[in-house]
Write a structure and sequence with these properties.
This protein is mainly alpha-helical. About 60% of the residues lie in helices and about 5% in strands. It has helices spanning about 5-50, 50-60, 65-70, and strands at about 90, 100-104. The protein has a two-stranded antiparallel sheet with strand order 1-2.
Amino acid sequence: MTPNNIQSIDIKLQQLKNRRALLLAQHGATERKRITRQAVIIGKWVMAKRPELVTEIAGMLERDQDRAVFKMPLVAAAGQVAPGISHVDIQLPLDDDAEPTTIC
């Protein structure tokens, strides 16, 4: 084989690898869209047939962006204490032989 043949084979191999990567990415995107559509259909069914589940699920949401979808009040901002929590106890050992000390 001549160097030109080897170079042309290398170019063709790189093109095939690029094409494979593109096809895999397209397949992944198609599959994600299918799963999302499936979730939407199931969600619509639950909302229509079992509204009590929607209320229960909405009550368990913690992320602000999820709560906003259900028009619920946002969770306390970072750094603020959530309602009902007044303090946190943390036990830290001073060294291997010492008893843990409680910090409030």
